[in-house]
Specification:
Elements: H1 3-24, H2 31-43, H3 48-60, H4 65-90, H5 115-130, H6 135-151, H7 157-177
Length: 181
């Protein structure tokens, strides 16, 4: 891409991020919204909620054990790809924190793409493969986790969008590489 095209793209991304951030402003400080989003963000630290869901399924439904193994391995690979290989390429700064907001761990990695969103969408793809009837639940939880990062100002909207796309692609690849159906 030429310099002027990159400048136009950067301006478009900034406008998108500003609009998304402004859309969350009315929710910030709302007790219910803060509780939902901050707790979802905390629960998804290090993909913990996805591991818990996967392992719980394997414990209570033995035929889901291969799915749990695939999920654990896939989440590890996703974390390395996103946090160690992709984020350093972009070196994007995170949004400014909101003064007085509940405390969340502030990652040292770059902002783009969102690792929470990436692991959430990959988990939703793999959990849907394991328990297809719960697809709306998996994607709803993934959406809450992903958007929690915008609400908490840990990520820009475009970081989350890129994370959702990245995780969905990685989930699809994991399903193709390790088919369990």
């Amino acid at each position: 891409m030429a310099g002027s095209e990159l400048s136009k793209l950067a301006a478009l991304v900034r406008r998108f991020d500003t609009r998304i951030d402004q859309a969350f402003d009315p929710l910030r400080g709302n007790a219910v919204a803060d509780a939902v989003f901050y707790n979802a963000s905390k629960a998804a630290e290090f993909s913990a909620c996805w591991h818990v869901l996967s392992v719980a399924g394997a414990v209570f439904v033995p035929h889901l054990r291969p799915h749990a193994k695939r999920m654990t391995i896939a989440l590890g690979v996703e974390s390395v790809l996103v946090n160690v290989m992709i984020k350093p390429i972009f070196k994007r700064e995170r949004p400014d924190l909101i003064e007085g907001a509940p405390h969340l761990r502030r990652p040292k990695t770059a902002s783009f793409p969102s690792g929470h969103a990436s692991s959430a969408s990959m988990a939703a793809v793999l959990l849907t493969d394991a328990v297809p009837i719960a697809k709306p639940v998996w994607w709803s939880v993934a959406g809450i986790v992903a958007t929690s990062r915008i609400h908490a100002r840990m990520h820009h909207g475009s970081d989350v969008a890129a994370g959702l796309l990245t995780g969905s692609a990685l989930g699809w690849i994991a399903r193709r590489l390790v088919p369990l159906r």
